[in-house]
Amino acid sequence: MADTPEMEDLVRTDDPGFGQVLACVFGVQEHESRTYLVLLEYPGSTVAELAEELDRDRSNVNRSLMTLLEKGLADRQRRLLDPGGYVYQYTATPLPEAKTMLHDALDEWVELVHGRIDEFGDE
Fold first, then answer.
1. Which segments cross the bilayer (predicted)?
2. How far is CA 4 from CA 20, 29, 78, 105, in A?
């Protein structure tokens, strides 16, 4: 967790939404958090389906999905098409698992901050 605009927004918000927390903790953009939340509602979606649901360009949705994959917040499966070829279908990491990941990341960060506080002035 770095000092980012998302973190500043989160700290200054009395009642942050799950998407804001997700963006802050995992260092993702708001549109990537939104992609995750939509993917929770529509598991097994393709890039084209998500682009339509999110009202975003397919290339932007694809970049968001790549970020979510890198952060462990999504999974993809290749589905073969009848006339040949294939398409990727994306599924969000289940919410309980994502919550555990958020708690773990925050716990690590809090431990780091407590360590910095305790070390201060020891030089």
1. none
2. 12, 11, 35, 16
